[in-house]
Amino acid sequence: MESSNLTSVTEFILLGLSSQPELQIYLFLLFLMIYLMILLGNLLIVLLILRDSRLHTPMYFFLTNLSIVEVCFTSCVFPQMLVHFLAERKSISYACCVIQVYMFVTFGIAECYILSVMAYDRYVAIRDPLRYSVTMSWGICGRLAAGSWLGGFMFSTGFAVATFQLSFCHNSTVNHFMCEMPALLHLSCTDTSQAELVMHVLCIFTLLFPITFIILSYAHIIIAVLRIRSAQGRRKAFSTCSSHLLVVTLFFGTIMSLYLKPKSLSSPEYNKVVSVFYVAFTPVLNPLIYSLRNKEVKMALKKLLGKSEQP
Questions:
Q1: In total, how many domains does the chain have?
Q2: Burial class of 7 by CB neighbour count within 10 A (0 to 12, 13 to 18, 19+)
Q3: Measured in whole angstroms, how far is the alpha carbon of residue 46 from the centre of its chain?
Q4: CB-based contacts of 165: which residues, under 8 Å, 6+ apart?
Q5: What letter would DSSP give residue 281?
Q6: What pTM was estimated for this model as a whole?
Q7: Partner of 73 for a Cys bridge, out of 25, 107, 158, 160, CB 3.0 to 4.6 A?
Q8: What is the C-alpha to C-alpha distance for residues 236 and 254, in angstroms, rounded to an integer?
Q9: Are 67 and 287 in contact (CB under 8 A)?
């Protein structure tokens, strides 16, 4: 009986951000602008790092990975969301919903690990600068980046399997703008305690472990910075890490408030607001934070613009 209920749903209807028709065109224009800013900002960072040899360092190698994963992360959601703003029937097939959950979680987990690797990179650079080039060799950097991507693909399988073992009966209306595990848990007509347990266990490895590692890394960084005698040296060290710490706080804070909260304490409206924040606003802030607060990136941008102005 449970199997027939599960297969009876061949598509989901997404209610989107708002049910008011007069708002759809304005929401379309707003999120189209945000998506273009995410794409242009992150791809510009990748271009600057690839073109400027001064940025060929481990820190910018991981920043390149972060920008690429941000583009992939948002591209799992934005194209479908933009189409649905203009469509009368906001439907998504069961298969596409499965793919969206898997890919969205994959890139989200990869971003968690890349952010933790970036924290370790800053810790090594500040704590032991003389051995930095040895500790963070290109071989080690490549393995850390590859492990971050591989971890995303591995752990996302558990999220996808846990989600789509649920029975949805004949209720296919999702009060969300995308297929996301918390929203689908609210939709299920059967007991979701096992799926919630799997989700919380996986979150220990994909959210709590990375954020704990980041906190420990920055605790050691602060201790090392406080030992620097010159005030200028301390300001430079804190400036290097502050942008990364801001991104970490925004990203982990919002996503943990969604995935670690029990189903009984959350609501569809709350889930949508939080999801918009880490799907749209955090990725659009990432290029701005790294470009406006980083002298080397700004110099690389001026160099690129200067070259483009030459005949």
A1: 1
A2: exposed
A3: 17
A4: 6, 195
A5: I
A6: 0.88
A7: 107
A8: 28
A9: yes
DSSP notation for 116-180: HHHHHHHHHHHH-GGGHHHHT-HHHHHHHHHHHHHHHHHHHHHHHHHHTTS--TT--EESSSS--
Residues 108 and 152: beta-carbon distance below 8 Å: yes
Element spanning 93, H or E: strand 91-93
Residue 310 has pLDDT above 70, yes or no: no
What is the chain's alpha carbon radius of gyration, rounded to the nearest angstrom? 21
Please, is 75 exposed, middle or buried when counting C-beta atoms within 10 Å of its C-beta (0-12, 13-18, 19+)?
Answer: middle
CATH number at residue 216: 1.20.1070.10
Phi, psi (rounded to 5 degrees) for 77: -120, -50
Question: Residue 182: what pLDDT?
Answer: 84
Which of 21-46 are b and which e, b meaning 16 or more Cβ less than 10 Å from the residue's Cβ? eeebeebbeebeebbebbbebbebbb
Looking at the DSSP bridge assignments, the partners of residue 92 are: 12
Residues in Cβ contact with 218 at an 8 Å cutoff, skipping those fewer than 6 apart: 119, 123, 241, 245
Domain of residue 177, residue span = 2-309
> For 59-73, 116-130, 251-265, 270-284, which range has the lowest pLDDT when averaged over its residues?
251-265
List pLDDT tens digits, range 121-131.
988 988 888 88
Pair type for strands 91-93 and 173-174: unpaired
Q: Is 91 helix (H, G, I), strand (E, B) or coil?
A: strand
Name the CA dihedral angle for 141, 145, 147, 150, rounded to a multiple of 10 degrees: -160
